[in-house]
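Q: Give me the 3D complex with iron/sulfur cluster.
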Amino acid sequence: KEFSEVSIKDINQIAKSSFPLCMRHLFEKLREDHHLKHGGRMQLGLFLKGVGLKLEDALAFWKAEFSQKVGAERFDKEYAYSIRHNYGREGKRTDYTPYSCQKIISSTPGVGDHHGCPYRHFSEENLRAALCRMGVNSGAMEDVMEKVRNRHYQLACTITFEAIHGSSYDAGINHPNQYFTDSQKILKS
Ligand code: SF4
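A: Here is the predicted complex, encoded as structure tokens.
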């Protein structure tokens, strides 16, 4: 596979250039709060696995953040298991797959949760601010907002992708890992 491995040192950069908004948001919140609730850990953790972060690196990545909040010992005790679990190294040893857009869009984040799809779950004000920070121009912004009003969240995400990468994207976004892979393809070509 072309982009099968990603290391921790590249992660800030690829998050900025190639993560869809749902994952950028989780990533930024994790960096900011040094913590994510269960739904966010699952959504981002499985995405990162799909991106090519190996188990050892995933453990180091999550530990570096969570330790600052709960301490290294509590991380090892309470959180490391579920990360190994996501990689199929614990429990039933299922190799869990990253969530699709459909699954993320239909999730129901509660107070203090940061998972979900921003096009569906953010307020208009927060969504506009987030898109602005991603570098979406005002023309594309209004196109995105129109799609959102009509509940075409994946089309809104596709327009964002096109605006940021400066190229059309006929396939349409239906998976965050597809967004990532195709972004990397464009940026590396
Ligand atoms: Fe993420 Fe899919 Fe929503 Fe885009 S449409 S932000 S990839 S869940």
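A quick observation: Residues 55-70 form the longest helix (16 residues).
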